[in-house]
Design brief:
Elements: E1 3-10, H1 15-26, E2 31-37, E3 42-47, H2 52-61, E4 65-68
């Protein structure tokens, strides 16, 4: 069964930020897709079994903050 979560992300300013967050989230176990959008400061994450806390921690380790929408 696939899950989708939407996140609001703060601290992004450029495409480098988007790539850093995308890579960090995709490295979290269970995540199959991560689409990060700079214009809306958001991300859409899909996966089989998503551990939201691990995703938030991965984003914070990159220097950004996120909350579930």
């Amino acid at each position: 069964m696939s899950q989708t979560i939407e996140l609001a992300i703060t601290g992004m300013t450029c495409d480098h930020c988007v790539r850093a967050i995308t890579n960090a989230v995709q490295d979290v176990e269970g995540v199959t897709s991560a689409k990060v959008d700079l214009a809306s400061n958001s991300a859409k994450v899909e996966g089989s079994v998503i551990d939201v806390q691990k995703i938030l921690e991965a984003i914070e380790e990159e220097g950004y903050s996120a909350t579930v929408r």
